[in-house]
Predict the structure.
Amino acid sequence: MTATRFRCLLGVVLLAIAGCDIGDGGPGGRGEGPGGRQQDLGLNPREELNVGREAYQEVLQEYRGRILPKNHPDVVRCRTIVDRLAKAADIEPLQREIGLRIRGFVFEWEVNVIQERQINAFCLPAGKMVVFTGIIPIAGSDAQLAAVLSHEMAHALAHHGSERVARERSGGAGVLRSLQYDRFQESEADHIGVFLMAFAGYDPDEAVAFWVRMQRATGGEGGPPEILSDHPTHRKRIDQLRKWAPQAKDAKRAFDEGRIAPAGR
């Protein structure tokens, strides 16, 4: 998802917060996030759920008439993959392995596919997702499409939208620092995504294959220098994923062999 698109949705999110009857939403604020890093959240669990729902309805309204029917093959394919990934996200040892901040939060995984040429997909807070048909041909297999969907789901699991709300409320940190932070979140979503893939039974090496195909489809590195972009370069993503994919496979192997047990055992 592009930073520009996110900022448009962020406006919807902040308006939704203003209209919500929040009450006691439980955990939020500052705490331990993915990988054990400290994480500031701008939304508590109830806010996150409410604003995700609100923003999703705004998106669906915007693209009404171009939403594919639920029996369309692309929709069936995406929903089947998301169901597998969602089951993996519920595995408690995996949550501990990648340091997800899950307790008290609700995820309503839902995906719609929109007939649109743009090569994009995104996931709103609490799990509402949109896939544009332009990205589907680039994914040459279900595992490569899982790389796309797991990356987007990772943004929700890591509460990246809530972090950005907190950052916007604090006044941000300048354009270059904001872009650097956006790139960090993209890399973190890639990292979490390959673990979701592995625990869902997909080969995380296919994430590398997808980004190689993406690099070819978009003409290589024809965009701005990374320092001026909200995303890492394709080359950097490929290099990072090549390092992380074996780690994800090792973690899944350890889980299958009982070397990563649920908490309390």
In short: The longest strand covers residues 110-114.
